[in-house]
């Protein structure tokens, strides 16, 4: 419902803000008011940053990360261990692991998890490209850093089956990640401990 106390421009700003994760209509109004009151200090720089990001940000053609270049900075970093691929659901999980400095490897973003009820099958995820990357003789280990949800575990086992023909060790995060937990909400210490305690995965019969 339109707010008659504000003009259409501000109403549109509120509606767009309300689409952001964690912001409902009331929170969006508070944020919009805060921005409007601080046009020079906040709204101007934010608008400029959004315009630059809209123009320059791209998806990495190699791993699926978000950056202003492709391949991204992570894929281009020569200090990374090219023998290890860390598989994550989303870019937010990649960033969480990087904040924790849990591993100095390369990544592969799936773009979600298998969820038949939501119409998400293997074709909607970057699983084929993962298998292709895992066939590289340089890759020796694939770490499945996937959220410990039912869909996440199903996806992990499916990927393990797909990688069975590849000459790689398939491991997954262990201690520290609770069932139902999501990586982006865990603290750095928990993530680092989970990465160190990863376990071997076996393909299902």
Folded structure, characterized:
It is built from eight helices and seven strands. Helix 5 (91-100) links the parallel strand 3 and strand 4 (105-109). The protein has helices at residues 8-17, 25-37, 39-56, 73-76, 91-100, 127-134, 150-162, 188-196; strands spanning 58-59, 66-67, 81-88, 105-109, 141-144, 169-172, 199-200. It has 205 residues and is of the alpha/beta class. The chain starts with 7 loop residues before the first helix and ends in a 5-residue tail after the last strand. The strands form two sheets. A five-stranded mixed sheet has the order 4-3-5-6-7. A two-stranded antiparallel sheet has the order 1-2.
């Amino acid at each position: 419902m339109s707010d008659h106390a504000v003009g259409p421009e501000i109403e549109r700003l509120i509606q767009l803000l309300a689409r952001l994760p964690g912001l409902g209509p009331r929170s969006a109004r508070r944020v919009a008011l805060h921005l409007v009151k601080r046009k020079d200090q906040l709204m101007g720089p934010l608008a400029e940053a959004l315009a630059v990001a809209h123009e320059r940000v791209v998806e990495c053609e190699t791993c699926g990360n978000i950056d202003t270049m492709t391949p991204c900075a992570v894929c281009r970093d020569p200090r990374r261990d090219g023998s290890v691929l860390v598989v994550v659901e989303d870019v937010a999980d990649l960033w969480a692991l990087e904040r924790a400095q849990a591993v100095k490897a390369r990544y592969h973003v799936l773009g979600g998890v298998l969820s038949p009820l939501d119409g998400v099958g293997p074709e909607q995820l970057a699983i084929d490209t993962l298998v292709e990357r895992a066939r590289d003789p340089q890759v020796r280990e694939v770490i499945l850093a996937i959220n410990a949800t039912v869909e996440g575990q199903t996806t992990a086992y499916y990927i393990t089956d797909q990688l069975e023909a590849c000459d790689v060790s398939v491991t997954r995060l262990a201690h520290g990640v609770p069932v139902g937990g999501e990586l982006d909400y865990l603290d750095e210490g928990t993530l680092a401990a989970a990465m160190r305690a990863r376990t071997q995965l076996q393909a299902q019969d």
